[in-house]
Specification:
Blueprint (H helix, E strand, L loop, with lengths): L7 E12 L2 E8 L2 H5 L8 E6 L3 E6 L11 E6 L3 H6 L7 E8 L13 E7 L4 H11 L8 E7 L11 H6 L3 E6 L8 E2 L2 E5 L5 H4 L6 E6 L2 H13 L7 E4 L15 E2 L2 E2 H4 L2 E3 H4 L7
Parallel strand pairs: 7-8, 7-12, 8-9, 9-11, 12-13
Antiparallel strand pairs: 1-2, 1-6, 2-5, 3-4, 3-6, 10-11, 13-16, 14-15
Length: about 280
């Protein structure tokens, strides 16, 4: 029986600076059997830590179809633990336990064939795993549209993946809130200036689609309004609510909202099941 309280050592095999205070890590468990048996669902998270520096929940942003080969995390420097984590280099060790939580629903079990993904800021991180998986399964009958809102070009995440996603059929649009783009495209993706909600007026939304959202709490209110204007039903909208998570397994109650625990019952929720919970965003 797996002990979810016991962290396992993982070695960093690749590091990339994504933004001024953000780094992407590809890691592999030191114990080969653990890696070969590691499976996660897109949208789940893991507890990542260092001895003497505590641990914290981080989204697994790699392709779930590659889960037995490696795991990827994107970490932003915001406190004591993350300040140390972003200093780590290739060959260094960190400790992982998980995966935890409920992720995004299966793409093939959604009532709608197509998918609209909307991410804002670092909220784009937990959406990367679903984009990576979905990009490999697109066809003429299944489309993926991605709206990504970012402050400026310096803060862009995963730009080295944009062209590959688009080659596979992903319809990616990027919008900057603090910087007017000099060109009409960024790494091949159409871009513009304003808030992510502006894309709903500029770009034709794919039909017969479900929507996956993740971003700052203030973003949800306005994106949900746009989705309702586009006739998206509540049951076709899913949100990742990651704020306030701490222990990862629903014991500390730090993430409790009404009768639900974000880390244990989520972090991904269907909008229909949470829309009446006060102060959920």
């Amino acid at each position: 029986m797996k002990n979810f309280y016991l962290p396992e050592a993982a070695k960093i095999i690749e590091v990339v600076r994504e933004a001024p205070n953000v780094k992407w890590f590809k890691v592999r468990f030191v114990n080969k059997k653990i890696q070969q048996n590691f499976h996660f669902w897109h949208g789940q998270f893991a507890m990542v830590g260092l001895p003497g520096y505590d641990e914290a929940p981080f989204d697994i942003c790699s392709n779930p179809l590659r889960s037995t080969e490696y795991i990827e995390f994107t970490i932003r420097k915001v406190g004591r633990l993350t300040s140390r984590l972003v200093q780590l280099q290739k060959g260094d060790l960190l400790w992982i336990r998980g995966p935890f939580g409920r992720g995004w629903p299966s793409l093939f079990k959604l009532p709608k064939k197509n998918l609209l993904v909307v991410g804002g800021g670092c909220g784009f991180v937990p959406l990367r795993s679903v984009i990576e998986e979905a990009a490999e399964q697109l066809s003429s009958e299944r489309q993926l549209q991605v709206f990504y809102g970012c402050r400026n070009t310096e803060e862009l995440l995963f730009e080295n993946r944009y062209k590959d996603w688009q080659k596979k059929g992903v319809k990616l649009n990027v919008i900057f809130s603090e910087e007017k783009p000099r060109n009409k495209t960024v790494y091949g993706a159409p871009c513009s200036y304003g808030l992510v909600t502006k894309l709903f007026d500029e770009v034709e939304i794919i039909k017969n689609a479900s929507a996956f959202l993740c971003g700052p709490p203030v973003m949800f209110k306005f994106v949900l309004k746009k989705l309702k204007e586009k006739k998206f039903a509540d049951q076709d909208i899913y949100l990742s609510l990651e704020r306030k998570m701490d222990c990862g397994i629903g014991i500390c109650q730090h993430c409790a909202c009404g009768e639900i625990y974000i880390c244990k019952d989520g972090p991904v929720f269907n909008y229909a099941e949470i829309k009446n919970i006060p102060n959920i965003f």
